[in-house]
Automatic annotation (TrEMBL):
The keyword Lipoprotein applies. Keywords: Cell membrane, Lipoprotein, Membrane, Palmitate, Signal. Belongs to the bacterial solute-binding protein 1 family. The lineage of its organism: Bacteria, Pseudomonadati, Pseudomonadota, Alphaproteobacteria, Rhodobacterales. GO terms for cellular component: periplasmic space. This is Sugar ABC transporter substrate-binding protein. Residues 1-22 form the signal peptide. The keyword Lipoprotein applies.
Amino acid sequence: MDITRKGIACLMAAAVTGLATAAAAQEFDWKAHSGETVTFLANSNPLGQLLIDHADEFKELTGINLVIDSYQEQQMRQRLMTVMNARSDEVDVFMTLPSREGMQFAAAGWYADLTPYIQNNVSPDYNADGLGKALLEAATFDGKLTGVPLNIEGPLLYYRTDIFEECGVEVPSSLEGLSDTAAKLKECTDATPFASRGLAAAAPYTFSGFMHNMGGQYMVDGKSAMCSREAKQALSLYSDLLKNYGPPGVVNYSFQQLTALYRAGRSAMSFQSSNEFGAVMEGGDRMDDTAIVPLPEGPGGSHPTVIGWGLAISAHSANPDAAWYFLQWASSPEMQAKLALEGIAPPREAIAESAEYKAWLDESPVRKQWHEALAELAETGTSEIGYPIIANPESRQHVGQAIGDLLLGTVSVDEACATADAALNELIARD
């Protein structure tokens, strides 16, 4: 499938023109769909939970009834698959990762086209242009806008400054240096030296930074490259860190377990999502003893992972007009300003530059470090997690399985990568 980005400039120009039209501003009515009902399929990650927490504000503003169906990420996707394959109208709005399933969902026809809405039906203060051209491009497939961006995120290295000082170690300056640092921490402290995702379905999110910084690529000349020298080095380093210095049962770890472990003070280094910042700092115990940096650079340089969640309307929704009001509310400057103060990095540059947000950052050094690290991700990062094919979600399963097998010690790195390559080349051939 040829994915194009043509037409986005025209889309944005039309949106801005529409916003400037007084007549359009007068015609917009937040109560236009009062009494109607919208069903929201939510991921119960920090971003999704915050939207749920503010849901009463949406009902008060619009009069629209919001039915929330919330699951952990894998269960949410299973539910979505069931609904979409049945062409059911049970879901109106769902959270989506364009970097993961965008090509697949677009090819399946699961996304409603938001172009007419963002051109012709926005509130006078929405400012579609403020969402950023690059973010809208990332959600545009074959000229159709499939979602509105909600955040910017990526894995960051959270580390305990007090433990590092007590053990006399410095934050590693290179990717390979993580092992030496973890070994020194293991000799000095009872805290887990290094923690990251080990669950097969979740691990590619954190592993991809290792892959790219090591100089590896998922595909070379149209073939899977998991057995390249660089990819094998990344697989070995990532799995060895978790086997030798990670928490017990790390093969079952995703973001929830990482956050709980670090927040409780039981890990010295935690490589996990920037989106977890608010949850990590909950209770305040980690506010004064944590520092945050991007993943150290490797032989291939620094290519951190950066992605963003979006909201989409189901192509099978029976109520897309009311659903658009929910998307507009959730991605509005006002709502995203509130989320920013809860540790959700804003996709709108104007919010990041606002006096209120800057004051919030100034209240704590670790908040500034989190923001600065995210700025580096936005500047230098890549959204490639898994293979740039329609079956990207399935490709991630094979990458994660290779990591999981290595963590269990059932295969060598050569066996793990060869098994992954064989399965992945079949996927590529089907694309």
